[in-house]
Each structure stands twice: as structure tokens, then as C-alpha cells.
Amino acid sequence: MARIKVKTAKEIELIRDAGALAAETLIRAGEMVKPGVCTLEIDEFIGEYTKKHGGISACMGYHGYPRYACISINEVICHGIPSEKTILKDGDIVNIDITSILNGYHGDTSAMFYAGKPSREARELVDCARECMEAGIEAAGKTGARYSDIGNVIQDIADEHDYGVVEDYCGHGIGRGFHEEPTVYHFATGARLPLIEVGHVFTVEPMINAGRPATKTLADGWTAVTRDGSLSAQWEHTVVRTKDGIEILTLPR
Ligand code: MF3
Ligand code: CO
Ligand code: CO
Hints:
Blueprint: H1 9-31, H2 39-52, E1 56-57, E2 70-73, E3 76-78, E4 93-102, E5 105-114, H3 120-140, H4 147-161, E6 164-165, E7 171-173, E8 180-184, E9 201-204, E10 207-209, E11 215-217, E12 224-226, E13 232-234, E14 237-242, E15 245-248
Antiparallel strand pairs: 1-4, 2-4, 3-12, 4-5, 6-10, 7-8, 9-14, 10-13, 11-12, 14-15
Bound molecules: 2-amino-4-trifluoromethylsulfanyl-butyric acid and cobalt (II) ion (CO) (2 copies).
């Protein structure tokens, strides 16, 4: 693995500012999730709100990605492209993933929302995915924690529910760059990965499938779906390792 950067206090402050903007945008975007709303409308809001607050939406144009954010519904794991044709319906589970750039630094966060009333199975999956993210973050804050501890604890929780942990998409270091070293695995790779050092800034963003972990990409080149058509849920925070644990950098102010 290439060198993982140790960020300065000043850089962490700038990532915290970008993270707060992403989190505040995400809350407001989530309030728009309702049956009958198209995902393009939510995306347009995200682009406008980000700009109004002095930021840039990192996804727009990233490797050719065409929209401000990713909105992924039901069996879509991640990278769902907002569209006028994608209209939310009662019972949908919706991930909104927002990455904001402010003063040159990135903040990346996502959360799940419900359009109308979800099924019990959907709610259980969404709750478990959140528990996986939280447990991964907590594991990263322990004394002597390694990157492998994140995937190990998430794998254990998902296994208990017989859910699949997506392996094809991972967390990542973040800062001036959107996706920096290291790759953060959410599953148990079996390897003993590097120590998480004070000043490392990275995301924890497990994607948990109600069925098997396998993914496929649709013809648009972006939309990642579960191969077996099962539901998928994801939560994401950007975090920094501190001397006494972990600080979440993507919280609203
Ligand atoms: N925000 C996603 C992540 O969590 C990346 C989206 S890249 C895009 O890493 F190009 F699809 F927007
Ligand atoms: Co993200
Ligand atoms: Co991310």
C-alpha cells in the first residue's frame, strides 16, 4: 500500500468545514425524499445548495460522472445517477451520497432515507448497515487499531444477519483528493492491514446487501446493483484518527 498521509491540524479543520457542508446538504436533501419526487430534483437542490455555500460538488465531472450527487434506490448499491425518470415510490429505500469540496478539501458522507413506509425487511437492512458503519468507526478508534479491524467487525455483524458485505466498492483516504490512500475494506480480507495513525483521514462506508455481495454495473457505466436483485443499504462518514479515538468530520453544525 502506498504511503498514507498524516494530515495537519489545519488540514483537518478544512476537511471538517467541507464535511459540515456535505452533512448539512445531506439533511436537507433527505427531507425531499417522498413518493412522487424525481431524483433529478433532489440532485439539482444539492448542486445549488453547495454552490450557495461556497462549495463545489465533487462528483460532477469526476471521471465523467454526470450529476452533483449519487442517489441509489433499493437494489442499487451505489453510484445511482439522478434522473428525471427515476421517481420515488412508496417503500423505496434511498441512499444519498454527497461529497463537497470547500477551500480545496473534500468531505464525503451518505445516509439512507425512506420514501413513504418501508417494509420491515428493508428497515432491518438499513438499521444493520448503520450499525456496521458505526461499529467500523468505533473499531478504528481503539488503541492500536489497524485498517483490518474495520472490515473484521463489519463482516461479523453482517454475517450474523446473513447479509452480504460488498467487496467491489470500498472506503478511502480523503483530503485534497477525493479518493486517496488507503483503500478501506469493509469485509474481512484475511490480511493484517496497516496501523491507523493519528492524523489519518478516511471514510467508512459499508454497503450491505440483503443477499449476496456480488455486484454488477449497468450499461450507463456507473449504476452498481446487486447481482441477485436483493436490496442494498449504505451509510458513510469521513473520520479522523485522533490520539484518543476517532472524530467524525461529517457532522452538521
Ligand atoms: N461519494 C462516493 C464515495 O463515497 C463516490 C462517488 S464518485 C461518483 O466514495 F463519481 F460516482 F460520483
Ligand atoms: Co460518498
Ligand atoms: Co466515499
